[in-house]
Amino acid sequence: MNQVSAEWNDAIVHDLLHYPQRLSQHPTWSTVIAEAGGLQQLRQQLLEFPLKSKQRRVLEVILAHPEASVVRYTDLLAIHHATFHRQQNALCHSLSSFLNTNPRQPELIPAAVEPVAFIPTSLVRSWTSFVGRQADLEALSTLLTNGSRWISLVGTGGVGKTRLALELAQHWLGPNCDEVHVLRFADVQHVEDVGLACMQQLQLSFSDAQSIEHAIQQFFENRRSLLILDNLEHLPAAGEWFASLFAEVPQLQVLATSRVRLNVSNEVIYEVDVLAYPALTASMEPVSHYPAVQLCLDRLEAVRLIDRSDQHLLNHVGQICCHVAGLPLAIELVAARAAEYSLDSIVAAIRSDLGLLAEGPLDVDVRHQTMAATIGWSYRLLPAETQAILRQLSVFQAGWNVAAAAALVGLDHDLMEDHLSLLLDNHLISIRNDVVHHPYTILEPIRHYAWQLLSAEQRHTLRLQHCDYYITWVTPTEEYLIGPDHAMWHLSTFQAYPNIQLALQTAKAEADPTRFWQLLAVLYRFWWGFHFIAEAQSWIEPIIPSLFKITDNPYLQCRVLYTAILFCSKNRPDYSQLAIIHYLIDLTQKHGFHTLEAKTKNFYALILMEQNKLKEAGDMFLATVTLYQQIGDETNVLGPMFNYANLMWKSKKLNESYLMFQDLAVKFKQMKYYLDFTASMKNISLIYIYQEKYYEAEKILVDLIAEEEHMQHIPLYLGDYNLYFRLIKVYFFLKNEQGIDRCIKILYPVAVENTVFIEQVFFTCESLILVAIIKQYYLIAFAIYRYFLNVVETETYAMRWNEREFLAQTKIVLSHYCDDVDFVADPDFCLEKNDFNATMNYYIKLMYGF
Questions:
Q1: β-strand 253-258 against 225-230: which pairing, if any?
Q2: For residues 46 and 26, is the Cβ–Cβ distance under 8 A?
Q3: Cβ 120 vs Cβ 178: under 8 Å
Q4: Distance CA 161, CA 159 (A)
Q5: pLDDT tens digits, residue range 751-788?
Q6: Which of 346, 350, 338, 348 is nearest to 305 (CA)?
Q7: What is the DSSP letter of 531?
Q8: pLDDT at 752
Q9: Cα→Cα distances 251→115, 244, 269, 307, Å
Q10: DSSP-derived secondary structure for 148-190
Q11: What is the pTM of this model?
Q12: In the prediction, which pLDDT does 114 show?
């Protein structure tokens, strides 16, 4: 060893213990190693030095488990991390002293193809819990049992591929195989070095007359082994080399981890997905049941005391898991910060910035110490052009399709598909099979990483391009949402809505309001159809005063004013709904916008009808019909005719109303306006209920529900859940408690968005009162009854005859079970969207134990 001028120090010894391949590639130290008889001989010599007992134990564990993590070493030694680092530092210092003062040249050990000390049980169970992968373990075990020789675990960085492979190995050892070997290639930069890396990690040596390939084959022959090849995505040719090598070792099974498929013969691809996590919206599934939440709770317990039953804690953990999209590494990095920050501050920070993922443990592979390092590893494997495309795609806030990506990036459709395929192969984006129209998506940590690579100027330019695309995309939906393909467009617009929201934010921030107005002018039908009342108000109300000013684009101004009258019903100090309506009518008449004038008058007549000004409302509806006929609009004229039929219903003229709805239903169906057809049939069912034709009403409602499910294939909270409220009423009169229970289980926990239009609140309260009565929860029925009367009092709402009758009948029924049913208004009551939704869901939980 003294033949080469090189002095050992603590750092060099540390590399000898943990990263011997680095020394083997160094021009000086490779010579030193060769003169010592090779790595195997040199590392064996270390055991001959007169070390202290604790240092010797640390050395034995490190040599028996090369390239293991600190966590694993501390687990084997049963010591604290800090103690391990201290003992390891002392060991390196002692070894460097012995190596520098010991000139002995050890004898060469004859070449062999056996490991120095292989212990099959060296796969020590990790000190951290393994969560949410039981189905994966069972599926992979089945593949191995069925004889699959090469299984590639593929998935995005940080998803837990290696941990899954190691856990599978724990289960597979024993009757299935005799030994498991783990070979890691994160530090191998060239495919030519793969063979040498295998030799070093298996602790094999070979003679000049023997090839590396033959030595490895000879080692594995006659063994029942499971070989884990970890991190091969940056060495695509290595898969083919291994496949060729192991073709001669039929009893060997290979489990490879990679971020891309390796394209080897007979390769079985197993996609490792993120852990299931709760959505930000309500769900029947308890938050604690989600694997991502369980993982986060386990990791939180490692750094602080927690109460797993604390609902406030569970809500925070659910939000954390949602914001990091269930990515295990991201969850672990965030949970580790709980030792320094409160969960409140973590949730607040992570909503706007994933900087909390910037620091992680130092005892893991450098690629997994931060999310940036994990994602950057995959990002750098991409061609420069695809890297640029990923940065541009990071502007999307939700799913997108090929057309959207191509328009944003400026490529043709086929070329864009090629780049998306490459990003999919590298698991930097994903595709959701359950999302039809905008299937491509990107995990939030990856999106955040790519977005941070852009300059402020690039981000602003991208945001404007994104905004312009969605203005163009959303504009025709105004008509599509009521046409023959309305179901498809409802679903498509809903899936695109997070991107539309981003476009709204971008447009609103611009000095020129044109983009913002263009979006507001066409979104009213989407907002109205999905009862996104509060959402619409949040965008429109702040700009209403500016809409009274003279502009260069009066038509667009009128369009936005029309949207405003639909959603902004409450009067403010600087405007009122009635003032907006009169101003809009004057403006449309001045500029000759007759269709907008008719639409405005039709809506004004609706307001008069809700105020029980039935004569004025009827005259206005008929005047609107005349105006549409004058301009030759045979389609929109059906709108005020439908509303006039509603007026007949409100006037308790049931027969006239029934005939009008029947006629309108036929016309709407012929025109394929299925939403209007459904509305007509719903009203006919309501007439049947008041005529006590309950079975006829049930048939209409059941058929409509079946038709909607067949046509739309969309979640209930996007559909017409009002149908179920009406069905509950029918089942109440039919005394069908099982039917009511089915409806409630389907409805819960649908968020009742529409709290401005009291009709929706009435149907909800009416239905739940009936449920409470039939299930004999009379105090709950009374509480909901009082809640609705407070709504009526607060909103100064003029009740319809059927509503008054229902409340009167309810009071009679409740008077038999409650001491005092006289209503006294609550002066502090305020109807608020979230409060209404939470209150109604609370009563459902009390009755059904959800």
A1: parallel
A2: no
A3: yes
A4: 6
A5: 444 443 445 778 888 889 999 999 999 999 999 999 88
A6: 338
A7: T
A8: 41
A9: 19, 14, 20, 49
A10: -SEEEEE-STTS-HHHHHHHHHHHHBTTTBSEEEEEE-TT--S
A11: 0.69
A12: 37
Q: How far apart are CA 253 and CA 147, in angstroms?
A: 8
Non-local CB neighbours of 198 within 8 Å, separated by 6+ positions = 183, 204, 212, 216
Measured CA distances, 267 to 182, 229, 279, 842 (Å): 19, 13, 35, 52
Instruction: Indicate the helix (H) or strand (E) that contains 473.
Output: helix 456-474
Over residues 623-643, the mean pLDDT reads 92
Q: What sign has the CA pseudo-torsion 313, 316, 320, 322?
A: positive
* Cα(6)–Cα(515) distance, integer angstroms: 70
Per DSSP, the three-state class of 593 is coil
Q: How confident is the model at residue 355 (pLDDT cuts 50, 70, 90)?
A: low
CB of 306 closer than 8 Å to CB of 297: yes
The one-letter amino acid at 578:
L
Overall residue count recorded for the chain in this entry: 850
How far, in Å, CA of 635 to CA of 637, rounded?
5
The CA distance from 329 to 357, in Å, is: 9
Tell me the DSSP string of 269-317.
EEE-PPPP---SS--SS-GGGSHHHHHHHHHHHTTS---TT-HHHHHHH
Report whether 674 contacts 711 (CB < 8 A).
yes
Are the CB atoms for 493 and 392 separated by under 8 Å?
Answer: no
- Give the DSSP letter of residue 370: S
Q: Using N-to-C axis directions, what is the helix angle for 53-64 and 81-101, rounded to 10°?
A: 100
Q: Which has the closest alpha carbon to 596: 584, 608, 580? A: 584
Amino acid found at 804: R
In this predicted structure, the answer to whether residue 749 has a pLDDT above a threshold of 60 is no
- Give the mean pLDDT of the chain: 83
State the Cα–Cα distance between residues 767 and 385, nearest whole angstrom: 57
Over the range 306-338, which residues count as b (16 or more CB within 10 Å of their CB) and which as e?
beeeeeebbebbbbbbbbbbbbbbbbbbbbbbb
Q: Over the stretch 510-536, which tens digit does the pLDDT of each residue have?
A: 999 999 999 999 999 999 887 788 889
The answer to whether 216 and 245 are in contact (CB under 8 A) is: yes
Separation of alpha carbons 652 and 534, rounded Å: 32
512 CB burial (10 A radius; 0-12, 13-18, 19+):
exposed
Q: Cα(620)–Cα(90) distance, rounded to whole angstroms? A: 93
